[in-house]
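We were asked to recover a plausible sequence for a given structure. The inputs and outputs are reproduced exactly as logged, with field labels preserved.

PROBLEM: sequence recovery
POSITIONS: 174
GIVEN STRUCTURE:
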């Protein structure tokens, strides 16, 4: 079971940048906004799972931070799309992220204790590597509205901090 989860995490972490760049190059601002919002929402859902399953203080603290920070960024995103009158639009990339996250959460649900904690944090590292890459390589450069580009850049800084924080928690779990 843990092997399947590690495989799923590895797939997410190693998705090729050229393939992502090619699919995202065709995204509109409405679709980019949806991908960014979806990424935050999926991280919130994973964090809530960790809060409900983990008894490890560091893991719970990390997960609570993800809920807080991602909810704040998503709130800013919703405010922005209303301000610039863009309706977020579902797309293949946001659907793919959602499907992969659901699969990983299902695998995580089967784990307990330290095994869950390590797998959750490993997934968080892989997820943030992927999302940060998507933001840097495709979403930010593809955004046409300056306000959206600015929000994505702010989100990238937040998510880079999350990636570092996850690495620190992972080191403490060894």
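RECOVERED SEQUENCE:
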């Amino acid at each position: 079971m843990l092997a399947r989860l590690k495989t799923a995490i590895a797939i997410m972490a190693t998705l090729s940048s050229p393939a992502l760049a090619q699919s995202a190059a065709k995204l509109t601002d409405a679709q980019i906004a949806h991908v960014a919002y979806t990424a935050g929402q999926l991280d919130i859902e994973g964090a809530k799972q960790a809060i409900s399953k983990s008894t490890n203080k560091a893991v719970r603290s990390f997960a609570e931070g993800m809920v807080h920070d991602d909810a704040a960024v998503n709130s800013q995103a919703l405010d922005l799309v209303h301000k610039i009158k863009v309706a977020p639009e579902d797309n293949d990339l946001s659907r793919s992220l959602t499907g992969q996250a659901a699969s990983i959460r299902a695998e995580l649900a089967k784990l307990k204790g330290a095994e869950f904690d390590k797998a959750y944090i490993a997934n968080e590292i892989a997820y943030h590597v992927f999302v940060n890459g998507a933001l840097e390589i495709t979403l930010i450069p593809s955004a046409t509205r300056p306000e959206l580009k600015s929000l994505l850049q702010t989100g990238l800084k937040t998510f880079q901090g999350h990636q570092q924080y996850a690495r620190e928690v992972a080191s403490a779990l060894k």
